[in-house]
Design brief:
Blueprint lengths: L10 E5 L3 E7 L14 E7 L1 H11 L3 E9 L2 H12 L2 E9 L5 E6 L5 E6 L8 H10 L5 E4 L5 H13 L3 E4 L9 H5 L3 E2 L3 H8 L5 H8 L2
Parallel strand pairs: 1-4, 1-8, 2-6, 4-5, 8-9, 9-10
Antiparallel strand pairs: 2-3, 6-7
């Protein structure tokens, strides 16, 4: 007889941000004090943390989102979207702060201006994150970014390491990372620009080797 083994989907927790993108498209962006007509307005689900959660779920993982949203229309829409994308949102806290938003202006050449208001992304703390990490059954991977306070990510990663989980950090948007966070990060995954910010040089075989050895 032929025996088939079906691998169980990994259980992943994303500790991070949710953000509603509000995007205006216009041929020319207004100068201070000027009012112009735009071509299109669109809303979209964003936030680096929520984006990671959805992509992990689409790849077949069992995903838990750990974060915070507001008790508002955007927050309710986000809860529905997590459910539609098969992302468990039991550990997404409802904050008194409004759901985070990114207000984006894009001109006809593709140049953009963005204002991010973090809102509820700063509405949960290390205690909430640690409690979530300790509560998720069969957890194997914990992922973070830099759109929430580093202290929260550090505490979540420390709890994850104590459980034997692997931790991954996408250092975006770039900011200097604390020694405490780096000490509990197994995989640091910058893009080319972020790597250059960390290492002072573009990624090459030589700079990558030097970066790995510290």
């Amino acid at each position: 007889p032929i025996i088939y083994f079906v691998a169980k989907a990994p259980v992943i927790a994303i500790v991070g941000s949710t953000c509603m993108d509000l995007t205006c498209y216009a041929d020319v962006l207004p100068t201070p004090g000027q009012t112009l007509f735009g071509n299109l307005f669109a809303t979209g689900f964003g936030g680096k943390g929520a984006n990671q959660a959805v992509m992990a779920a689409l790849a077949g993982a069992e995903v838990y989102m750990v974060g915070s949203i507001g008790d508002d229309l955007f927050g309710k829409s986000y809860k529905e979207n997590f459910a539609n994308q098969k992302v468990n949102s039991d550990f997404v806290k409802i904050s008194e702060l409004p759901t985070g938003v990114a207000h984006i202006w894009v001109d006809k050449s593709g140049e953009n201006r963005i204002i991010v208001v973090s809102g509820a992304n700063h509405g949960f703390d290390a205690k909430h994150a640690v409690s979530a990490i300790n509560s998720i059954p069969e957890l194997s991977i914990v992922i973070g970014q830099c759109e929430i306070p580093q202290s929260v990510t550090t505490a979540a990663f420390k709890a994850a390491k104590e459980r034997g989980c692997t931790t991954l950090l996408n250092p975006a948007p770039f900011e200097e990372l604390s020694e405490q966070l780096l000490a509990v990060t197994d995989w640091l995954i910058p893009n080319e620009i972020e790597f250059e910010e960390f290492g002072g040089a573009a990624p090459t075989s030589e700079t990558l080797a030097r970066f790995r050895t510290g």
